[in-house]
Amino acid sequence: MVEKDTMIYRNLGNSGLKVSALSIGNWLTGHSLDFEETQFQVFSRFVNAGVNFLDTAEIYGAGNAETILGNIIKRGDWDRDKLVVSTKFLRCGGSVGLSRKRLIQSMKKSLSRLQLDYVDIMFLHRYDHEVPLEETIRAVNHLIEKGKASYWGTSEFTAQQLMECYKVCDKLGYEYPIAEQCQYSMLIRENVEVTLPHLFDNYGLGTTVWSPISGGLLSGKYNDGTIPEGSRLADPSLAPMVRERYMSYFAEANREKTLNMFKGLKDIANELGASQAQLALAWCIKNEDVSTALCGASRVEQVDDNLGSLELLNKLDDGMLRRIEDVLGNRPTPPMDYRKWAPRPPRR
Length: 348
Fold this sequence. Notes:
This protein has helices spanning 36-48, 64-76, 100-114, 133-145, 159-172, 190-195, 197-203, 240-247, 255-272, 276-286, 300-307, 318-328, and strands at residues 9-11, 18-20, 22-25, 53-55, 84-89, 91-92, 95-96, 119-125, 149-155, 179-181, 206-209, 292-295. The protein is an alpha/beta fold. The protein has a domain at 8-215 and 284-311: TIM Barrel (Alpha-Beta Barrel), CATH 3.20.20. It has an eight-stranded parallel β-barrel with strand order 3-4-5-8-9-10-11-12, surrounded by four helices. The chain starts with 8 loop residues before the first strand and ends in a 20-residue tail after the last helix. This is NADP-dependent oxidoreductase domain-containing protein. It comes from Stentor coeruleus. GO terms for molecular function: oxidoreductase activity. Keywords: NADP, Oxidoreductase. Belongs to the shaker potassium channel beta subunit family.
């Protein structure tokens, strides 16, 4: 079990905000209020181990996730000043969009559900093509000036969309987004390793990556190619698009490669005295461009497994990382970087 004094903290982008390398979100378990008791135990275990970043969104359970998190924070009686709480805005129920009117109304409702005076980070939860970006960013700045949020970020924005944000901020004299919440794992690598690094270097953008175990695919439970009862892929409520994406790894054309990869990862994990999920999570946070990796847990036992990943970091030396790359066989090719011979700007 990881103790508080061994937790790793990193600056989120170029801000002075310190976040734990592991964080907890309630996307998977925030849809029904029936999960609140279990989630209290899960969040408590994370917080007691030093995790300080708690993430949710208005869309999760049409507000239920924010309600659950608010009740958990109140019941936990933790020091609010030591927590970093974020929520994301785009859609809740039938209300959609990032207009000034909607963002102001949505923030009021989210803070009420969270039982908080402010959130530390407000994320724009996908780009809104129907609202002028300048209007959205003016509304974000208004909410920050009113003390409803301390920082802002984006979620699943493209590099081009982020550059548009920087241009608007430069024009208006506003603060840049401090983080992008994007997907990253051993299986999904393109954004963090290819399309966004120039923004990490040039703008100090941080990341709060989600699905580091790729929806459970890297956990070890699918290593024999079957879908176990009670697993995420066996859940009938899983969105068809999500199911199709995950099941593509077991399609006839990919099945042998997938199972060989799983076996190779399991062998390395066994050698390191770790679970396969711990290896996948440790590999993710080993990347210096990952500020924090969001975990989702439905059982306390999963929390302890997640926390154990921190103990693997020192074992993932260059040689071990090369072995993992050989097993994965999916390293993306980044564009030519003509600055590679110059020292990289230090990360705070």
